[in-house]
Specification:
Pathway: Porphyrin-containing compound metabolism. This is Heme A synthase. It is built from eight helices and two strands, in the order ααααβααααβ. It is an all-alpha fold. A two-stranded antiparallel ribbon has the order 1-2.
Length: 304
């Protein structure tokens, strides 16, 4: 069976997969907007917005907050529709790529699970640990969606690393440290001023400065490993591509670090915090891209 995509798939799948990825990043950004505007309880119940209505009502006292929160909930439906569309497209045009279909099922199931976690977030009064888990689940969906987009551009089947084995293992260490950085970032946010509710903020209880320093230390470690992976890829790559991909990761990392330090030194202005959340999504996307591009499709064994 052919492991390459059909001409129809090459035409339409990139668009569907890119739209899916953009939507997953978009819901992270709009979720950040909900938090930064104190609109987390703009719709104080779930799955309804207010008791007796799934949409905001004129009588609600939440004002603009109800519109912002309802907009974010509506985008969840858009993300779910795109996940269904991606799955349909893969079954129609790329049935011979089961690895892509499995990933698409993960995205679809994840969107449904995220809706439930979002409901729990509201029902628990924006518990900071649930909010953090909600964000990390979104990052996981961005990861799978990015993998779908970049992996579908390669032929199916087994792949082999184009890097030295030590560099190949180091890139997975980098991915692990990236996950730690994201977790610490959510704790920083959960300990700071942007709780998601303008009236009754829920906080973790940790000292924001201490957690911020710990987060910054993890970022420094991440940057060091990123430099090592980029240099290792440049020196050992067996084909052009991986080193350039890891250079992009390094540049996005430095930009994200700069935003992080500026926002900390300027008392966390909302615009910079939102830019930092977008940067986190962008960093996840480029890391996945670099990992995918660091591998080459393995020739299929002969059946003669």
């Amino acid at each position: 069976m052919s492991q390459t995509l059909s001409s129809a798939a090459r035409r339409w799948l990139p668009r569907l997969l890119l739209l899916n990825l953009i939507a997953e990043v978009g819901i992270v950004v709009t979720g950040g907007l909900v938090r930064l505007t104190g609109s987390g309880l703009g719709c104080p119940t779930w799955p309804q917005c207010v008791p007796g209505s799934y949409v905001p009502t004129v009588e609600q006292e939440q004002g603009i907050h109800k519109i912002i929160e309802f907009g974010n909930r509506t985008l969840t439906g858009v993300v779910g529709f795109l996940a269904l569309l991606v799955l349909w497209g893969l079954y129609r045009w790329a049935r011979e790529r089961p690895e892509l279909i499995r990933a698409a099922w993960v995205v679809l199931a994840g969107v449904g699970a995220q809706a439930i976690v979002g409901g729990i977030t509201v029902l628990t009064g924006l518990n900071p640990w649930i909010v953090a888990f909600h964000f990390l689940c979104s990052m996981a969906l961005v990861t799978v969606s990015a993998w779908l987009y970049w992996r579908h551009q390669q032929p199916g089947g087994a792949t082999r690393s184009m890097l030295h084995p030590l560099v190949g293992r180091l890139q997975w260490v980098l991915a692990t440290v990236a996950a730690v950085v994201l977790v610490l970032g959510t704790i920083v946010t959960g300990s700071g001023p942007h709780s998601g509710d303008a009236d009754t903020p829920a906080r973790t209880g940790f000292d924001p400065r201490t957690i911020s320093w710990l987060h910054a230390d993890a970022v420094m470690l991440f940057i060091g490993i990123c430099v090592a992976v980029w240099l290792g890829a440049k020196l050992t790559e067996r084909a052009a591509g991986p080193a350039r991909a890891w250079w992009v990761v390094l540049m996005v990392t430095l930009a994200q670090g700069l935003i992080g330090y500026v926002q900390y030194l300027t008392d966390l202005p909302e615009v910079l915090v939102l830019a930092h959340m977008f940067g986190a999504s962008a960093l996840v996307v480029v890391i996945v891209r670099a990992i995918v591009l660091s591998r080459s499709p393995e020739p299929l064994p002969s059946t003669d």
